[in-house]
TrEMBL record:
Keyword presence, Hydrolase: yes
Pfam families for the chain: Hydrolase
UniProt similarity note: Belongs to the HAD-like hydrolase superfamily. CbbY/CbbZ/Gph/YieH family.
GO molecular function list: hydrolase activity; metal ion binding
Entry keyword annotation includes RNA-binding: no
UniProt feature coiled coil, ranges: none
Gene3D superfamilies listed in its UniProt record: HAD superfamily/HAD-like, Putative phosphatase, domain 2
Entry protein name: Phosphatase
InterPro entries (UniProt xref): CbbY-like, HAD-like_sf, HAD-SF_hydro_IA, HAD_sf, PGP-like_dom2
SUPFAM superfamilies: HAD-like
Amino acid sequence: MAQIKAVLFDQDGVIIDTERDGHRVSFNMIFKEHGFTDEWSVEYYHELLQISGGKERMKHHAKTKGFSRPTPDHELDDLVKAMHKGKTALFVELIESGKLPLRPGIHRFMREAMAAGLKVGVCTTSNEQAAKAITGKILHDIKFDLVLAGDVVEHKKPDPEIYNLALSKLGLKPDEVMVVEDSKNGLKAAKAAGIKTIVTTNGYTENEDVEAGDIIVSCLGDAGGERAKMRKGDIPDFNGVVHVKDVMNLFSK
């Protein structure tokens, strides 16, 4: 097997647990600003997460349940674009406020990757503005070699297009890269690109079928904080903290 030379991270649910108290809250705020009474509950948003992309989720909602105020089909695209732009601004404000903490172990794992000489990248369906707020401000001490976000690809996860694009831009082969994902759709995308994957589940994804993941843990873990619970993996003497070197050794066998 080839040596691992890069690690790619999904953003939402992997770097920050953004879905429940970030994106969902921001969607509800923008609906109210536009005069709608729609409010996405925690349970309903879980269903919507099976669809990749915020604009796509709003369109699905409009076509299946309908917004509280009828919207003609010919106006839907422009409305969704306007609301998504406003929602993104609200979401970025939430991120920059520091109210959405990093997931356990993510910052340490990124620093370990840098120290090991790995290239570090982000591949997310989230808006580019939101991605830049996280990579450029919250994680300002991490050197990102690649950030692919939003509409940079035509087909979103579970399609592997974003990971294939990352491989192309980095000039690496699938067996030279590892991915950290949190969901079934993200895992499918990485696997379809032929990349070994760590799955860090969260409250929204812990019951999803992610058994195709090479390593499945509750988080990456911190020695002085929350430790990871391993569901699947073959890391020797695992103590609740997933270390880059251990994963590199495992994935390079």
